[in-house]
Amino acid sequence: MNEWVKKQGDNIVLRRVHLPFQGPADPEAHLFLTLEAMGKQAEFHPKILHAVHVQRVRLMKDEQIIDWVSKNGIDRAKFLEVWNSFSVMTKLRRLGQITQAYQVTGTPTIIIDGKYQTSPGLVSEKLKITDRNQLMQASFQVLDALVAKAAKTK
Predict the structure, then answer these.
(1) DSSP 55-100
(2) CA 79, 58, 64, 72 torsion: positive or negative?
(3) Residues near 80 by Cβ (< 8 Å), separated by ≥ 6?
(4) In this predicted model, what pLDDT tens digit does every residue of 55-70 receive, in sequence order?
(5) Nearest Cα to 98, choosing from 15, 19, 14?
(6) How far apart are CA 70 and CA 12, in angstroms?
(7) Which pLDDT value is given to residue 17?
(8) 68-106 pLDDT, tens per residue?
(9) Distances (CA, A) of 21 to 18, 56, 75, 134
């Protein structure tokens, strides 16, 4: 996804919105919003993915997250200050509204220009693709087409 975003250049602005799987106080979404507010999301997103998917670190509860970030170079007090800030808490409460408005039920879901929605799951379902590499290639082709379509309607 990062390579596709780079390839698009100024044609798009990527905005990550985290699906609150565990409800309005979802700890993982809270983590990403806090890192975003601290300007550390780009730096820590790959580290989190590695921790969760490779090292099998559980980051499903507030305490687990706070311990993990403090062990990975973020000042605990500063993190907690931002974690508990009004702006982060407001964004966390709004995530449910955003995902409901776009009818997002899984990740990754990509919304183009606020009106076109796709995901690898939708591409797989429509094109009956089961091979992961073919699916990713087809998904990016769909994204390219939707970006082009959005550009034409402006």
Answers:
(1) S-----SHHHHHHHHHHTT--HHHHHHHHT-HHHHHHHHHHHHHHH
(2) negative
(3) 66
(4) 999 999 999 999 999 9
(5) 19
(6) 34
(7) 81
(8) 999 999 999 999 999 999 999 999 999 988 888 888 877
(9) 9, 18, 27, 28
* Average pLDDT estimate for 4-23: 82
pTM for this structure? 0.78
CB atoms inside a 10 Å sphere around CB 88: 19
Provide the token pair at 21: 């799987």
CA distance linking residue 86 with residue 12, whole number of Å:
29
45 is written with which tokens? 């997103």
Q: Which amino acid is at 48?
A: I
Whole-angstrom Cα distance, residue 45 to residue 63?
A: 19
Give residue 145's identity as a one-letter amino acid code: A
Structure tokens, 80:
């907690």
Helix axes 120-127, 132-152, angle to 10 degrees: 100
How is residue 147 written in tokens? 């970006």
The type of residue at 105 is T
